[in-house]
Amino acid sequence: MRTGRPQTLYEKIWDAHVVDRRPDGTCLIYIDRHLIHEVTSPQAFEGLRTVGRTVRRPDLMLAVPDHNLPTTARVDPQGRSVAVADPQSAQQLALLRKNAAQYGIRYFDATAPEQGIVHVVGPEQGFTLPGATLVCGDSHTASHGALGALAFGIGTSEIEHVLATQTLLLKSSKKLEVRIEGSLGFGVGPKDVILQIVAQLGAAGGSGFVAEYTGSTIRDMSIEGRLTVANMAIEHGARSGLIAPDEKTYAYLRGRPMAPKDHAWEAALAWWRTLPSDPGATYDKRLLIDAGTIAPNVTWGTNPEDVTPITGSVPDPEQFADDSRRDAARRSLDYMGLVPHRRMEDIGIEHVFIGSCTNSRIEDLRAAAAVLQGRKISSRIRQAMAVPGSGLVKRQAEEEGLDRIFIESGFQWREPGCSACLGMNPDRIPAGERCASTSNRNFVGRQGPGSRTHLLSPAMAAAAAVTGRLADVRELMGNARELTP
Ligand SMILES: CC(C)[C@H](C(=O)O)[C@@H](O)C(=O)O
Ligand code: SF4
């Protein structure tokens, strides 16, 4: 039984993983889980080879290809694997396969039913666990904090360090509490919550902090919804985003392939139950949001903090007090082809992307399908893609008949991967065209050179597909207002 001063979830996980504490406060931290994808790992393995080291704990690692994989059929009608056309992608994918085999790391190949985006696969397999330290060479690793894991992205040299030693040298972070209280309105979901948080904190507002999302809104959220929230911790600058594990977390994990079993499960559960922040634990910074004030949100600019309710308008850069924000807003509007005061609902779109590690889980697909059921996408839409986050999500969606709803409405139903979230595979948005996207970044060129991204929730993306413009899903579900093609 712990006595002494009340601790936060973050402090408890940190303390449980300190291998060595240096006089300057830097700690050598034990890493429990390491996810590996094809983009950031080849050089790390190469570095390991160069210095003649090996992988210390391959059993604590899981490798999955996701970024470079095309989302078109991976097996031809004769049952043969389809080769990846892009030479650089093909090489990175081949290296991941080779490195995993050489070092005995568990690996899901492109055609494995379990393949998917690392941040979807980890929780789904029960690889991600409460109280664990989890790393991946990827900035959206904080996603796993939704299950109470201390998870963060690392660079290639750190990947090499974890491969070799299963530890990292780290400085502890300040503690930020983001508390959201109350019920979300009709048509408002977890994506709207995290966009609201990013808007209120700003892109750098969480810098130097590990965030903990608390409050009744988070407690009432499903694990899928919590994953959407924690996924974007990096977009408000936080190193990690944590959510206390609870009965929902345990129910979600129980029986997953890589979760502990039998006695190990009981022992893990006993520890997990001690993890939530103690009453009276303190934070260095706090943000409180009333869930009732959150509307369906959408971005207008080229930074995830550029958020407005769908009922709002494109802001006037001159209204920003801060010089750098004003300049950034001017450049954003120029890139996005938008003018101040334009109503968000009057912005026509040509592409819709439902997918990415933010919003490609079963509940996301259900939310979009609920809007699309019995409706067709607008004739303005050139391409609408639904990309499940993993093969298992895809299979479940198909069992529920969601694929039929997507296809009948005019969507393409793709194989799992990062897809149009970023232009590292053939799924790209052409220059000057506009995409309603459920992903997490709207940076310049993110979905392809010159592409214009509006971030929103799966339900809002479906509403945009049906109307051919950014639309308020709450209104659509009552009365559809089409934009003339
Ligand atoms: C390619 C990868 C390193 C990158 C990341 O670090 O996040 C990508 O996943 C992203 O979302 O921008
Ligand atoms: S889906 Fe997008 S954000 Fe997530 S890991 Fe892939 S590229 Fe990064």
From TrEMBL:
Gene Ontology biological process terms, A to Z: L-leucine biosynthetic process
InterPro entries to which the protein is assigned, alphabetical: 3-IsopropMal_deHydase_lsu, Acnase/IPM_dHydase_lsu_aba_1/3, Acoase/IPM_deHydtase_lsu_aba, Aconitase_4Fe-4S_BS, Aconitase_4Fe-4S_dom, IPM_dehydratase_rel_enz, IPMI_cat
Protein name: 3-isopropylmalate dehydratase large subunit
Pathway: Amino-acid biosynthesis; L-leucine biosynthesis; L-leucine from 3-methyl-2-oxobutanoate: step 2/4
Cofactor note: Binds 1 [4Fe-4S] cluster per subunit.
Domain Aconitase/3-isopropylmalate dehydratase large subunit alpha/beta/alpha: 11-468
Gene3D superfamilies (alphabetical): Aconitase, domain 3
Record gene name: leuC
Source species of the chain: Sphingobium chungbukense
Record field: catalytic activity: (2R,3S)-3-isopropylmalate = (2S)-2-isopropylmalate
